Amino acid sequence: MTLRPDRTQPEGSAIADLHASIRDIAERCGELPGADVVPVVERWLERFDFTETDPPNTGTPPLPTALTTLGLRHLLAVATRGYPTRAARDRAIREELDLTPTRCFLLLNAAIDHADTLRIAPVTVNRLRRIRETQRTAREEGPAS
Q1: Least buried of 7, 92, 94, 119, by fewest C-beta within 10 Å?
Q2: Are 113 and 60 in contact (CB under 8 A)?
Q3: Per-residue pLDDT at 57
Q4: Using CA atoms, how far apart are residues 46 and 50, in angstroms rounded to an integer?
Q5: Structure-derived torsion over alpha carbons of residues 117, 123, 124, 125, reported in degrees to the nearest 10
Q6: What is d(CA 112, CA 135) in angstroms, rounded to the nearest whole number?
């Protein structure tokens, strides 16, 4: 996958400038000698602010510690994989995640509301949100008469 920097944004412009500087060195020297590249990269890095700041409040609570150590991708993969039966799904959750199915789905429910999870797996997260909303609506309406 090729990424294209957005030159209208400061970060994209900086990346494009670095690429141009390094390309100029390569064309001039026929290679990329470290003695020429290092100062270019140092000047480029000076354009950024690397001071630690508090992340902006996005309105979503931080991910539970269990999710950061467990790994969002792994949780999503195991919890959403197709299983022939509930028992097979529950066994896989216990064996692969070392969690009870109840705890797994509590974590999954918290995770799909978080922006980081949406960035990692947008299609899966949106599908899980739709399923959750459908189930929630069905519970609120009660049993069909």
Answers
A1: 119
A2: yes
A3: 55
A4: 9
A5: 40
A6: 15
